[in-house]
Amino acid sequence: MMSIGVLYAWGVIRRVIEEQWRWTATQSGLPYSLVLICFATGNLVGGRLQMKISARMVGTIGATMVGAGLILSGIVGDSPALVALFFGILTGLGIGFGYSSYLPTVLKWYHPSRKGFVSGWIIGGLGLTAVYLAPLASSLISVPAIGLQLTFVILGVITLAISLPLAQFIKSPPVEYVPPTPKTAKNITTTAQSRDKTWTQMMKTSEFYMLFFMFLCSVSIGQMVIGNITGIAALQVKPAISDAAVFAGLVSFMAVTNCGGRIIGGVISDKIGWTNTLLLVFVIQCVNMIAFRFYASFPMLIVGMVFAGLCFGATLGVYPAITVDRFGLKNYGLNYGIMYMAFGGAGIAAPLIASYFFDKSGNYNTVYLICAIGMAVMILTNLLIRKVIAEKSV
Description:
Blueprint: H1 10-20, H2 25-49, H3 55-76, H4 80-108, H5 115-127, H6 129-142, H7 147-167, H8 192-195, H9 199-202, H10 206-226, H11 229-236, H12 244-272, H13 274-291, H14 298-327, H15 332-339, H16 341-361, H17 365-393
Helix pairs in contact: 1-2, 1-6, 2-4, 2-15, 2-16, 3-4, 3-7, 4-5, 5-12, 5-14, 6-7, 6-12, 10-14, 10-16, 10-17, 12-13, 12-14, 13-14, 13-17, 14-15
């Protein structure tokens, strides 16, 4: 997961592309939007595919696509359309294939009481990619003999060298395998098998649409901040930041908080339940978004980034566990692939909303207000789904 999560390094690469290749903000933003959409689409397709062929094969295909997309992006160079094709579509689909093969497989090896813990750690690996990839990409680009195009190629080769061998270790448990019950596990009154739903059965429930709506809005709000953090820092922080190394450091720091949120959110959901975890996340993020316009110093920006990253990561860490809890593990790969299309929707909505209001006002204040209102709506939706679940359990 740490080797294929290359989408999180685009923030560093994008600034250099705009400076060196003179791409417009729309041109440089398109590959990132496409990689998010195709990531979600690849997760859906891969989730379906790994029910027909081995998860190992799906992971191998995904790793190959990610590496090939990076290498081809470097070869074509200054071409907005072709970089969007190779990085946005090919690499994005590859990330989705890898994601859909790893997470469902690992969940099958562990007891249901640890689904939050497991999903948090596995997804956390994806978020950690930017910790090393952002500074690595920045360092490679700054070397005159390497530059921007060759950086893409080198990153692709590194990805293939790491991810292809590791993909060969993906192995699903035997059909009759029953994971051992941890001593600290709470009593499970309803087995996962009794909740197993096909994707058509899942989409006939009101729960699915409320959960999908919460996922879409929450991830969109997180993407608005994370996807624009370097721009926010350059605009709001006094004295102004202009050092490329600092921007790369911000991307890496955001990745750390994002990863931490995935792990912490997953673990907490095992302890207090996912509805309580999401409610806590939504309240914190709502307050943070209201305050974000006032983060004018570097230390205050860091505080805002910590809360934004933790909350964004926690949502991503909790949702695999939610999908298993409400719709079972048997068809999890495909069901979560459908649920994860909300992430792809966020990839369309978040950049468009943020860019539109920034172009209108020259700042992100309206974006912060929209995010705060969205979080308030998510709090109400969370309370509503509690009521629906309680009525079904009677």
